[in-house]
Amino acid sequence: MARTRGLIAAAGTVAIAALALTACSSGNPLSSGSSSSAKSSSSTITIGSANFAEDEILAYIYADALSDAGVKTDVKPNIGARDAYIAALKDGSIDLVPEYTGNLLQYFDAKATAKSSNDVYDALHGAVPSGFEVLDQAPGQDADSYNVTKKFSDQNHVTSLSDLSKVKTPLKVGANPEFGTRPYGIPGLKSQYGVTATLVPISDGGGPNTQKALKDGQVQLADIYTTDPSIKSDGFVTLSDPKNMIVAQNIVPLISSAKASTKVKQVLNKVSAAITTDELIAINTKSSVDKESADQIAKDWVQQKGF
Predict the structure, then answer these.
(1) Pairing relationship of beta strands 72-80 and 96-100 according to DSSP bridges
(2) Which of 105, 155, 206, 277 can pair with 140 through a Cys bridge, CB separation 3.0 to 4.6 Å?
(3) Measured at the alpha carbon of residue 145, what is the angle toward residues 243 and 220, in degrees to the nearest 5?
(4) Is the separation of the CB atoms in 49 and 63 below 8 Å?
């Protein structure tokens, strides 16, 4: 494959510091007019990622699929948070990054009100600055979700957030402290679904402590990201959200328009079509449970899908 790894070892600290300074500059976060000696080669698509495993795997998936189609690629993983890799897109040191529709829309338009997958995606086209574009969104999402145990679901006939209004016993929700004020947290349950619940703050982002609290019955609901392997391994029931209280977070490629050739679009759109939430859970399981590398997970996935 015509893919090379981005250098992130000795130069990592310097590069991230430079990106952070760029991110602090005023004006449009993806406006043109800045230059960088680290710009991607005109014949190579340089793919960056945020600093967490799922996004890194997706970056390598994009790279493997493109290189198998004859496109030269380079990967610069683990750049940092959104401000850092948006700055890297701005200065041309990367050309492409896997993104999440809802968060990306709110980054570019803090007043955006779209919630559903289609509405968020439509709004995103108008929010992304000139010179950049989003390609097809994947059906798969990595979003907040309310989960209950199968026992609770069966006993109370609950499969949707709407069903919670029929539950007579007090409800406790295990989630990060900010869930107490977020529109899709405790306030949203009340205003959108007429459900009164008490927050049990657990600061691990839906991780092991939150999952244990749910399994042990300390809470009846838990905020767990939709691609967390525990949902399947522990048999949790993710409650549907018919009113789209939680903003959609579909996977989507954000790319420099200058690098978005017909071939590149065709390849990445085909990749996106295959990325379901179940596929995201599977690759995250390989990462967090099986401890496989992001590079290897991506290579196996692309070969399995026949890209």
Answers:
(1) unpaired
(2) 277
(3) 105
(4) no
Question: Exposed, middle or buried: residue 129 (CB in 10 Å: 0-12, 13-18, 19+)?
Answer: middle
CA dihedral for 287, 291, 293, 298, sign (positive or negative): negative
Token reading at 283:
């690759």
| Separation between Cα atoms, residue 172 and residue 248, nearest integer Å | 24
Residue 199: C-alpha distances to residues 12, 32, 106, 155, 202 (Å): 39, 44, 25, 22, 9
Helices (H), 9-166: 12-23, 53-68, 82-91, 101-108, 117-127, 150-156
**Percent of the chain surpassing pLDDT 70:** 87
Residue 183 has pLDDT above 70, yes or no: yes
For residue 278, the tally of other CB atoms under 10 A from its CB is: 11
Task: Show the tokens assigned to 9.
Answer: 């070892």
SS3 label, residue 96: strand
Asked whether the beta carbons of 84 and 23 are under 8 A apart, the reply is: yes
Q: Cα(207)–Cα(201) distance, rounded to whole angstroms? A: 12
d(CA 202, CA 176): 5
Question: Are β-strands 96-100 and 146-148 bridged in parallel, bridged antiparallel, or unpaired?
Answer: unpaired
Q: What is the pLDDT of residue 40?
A: 63
pLDDT digits (tens, 9 = 90+) for 1-24: 444 434 333 333 333 333 333 333
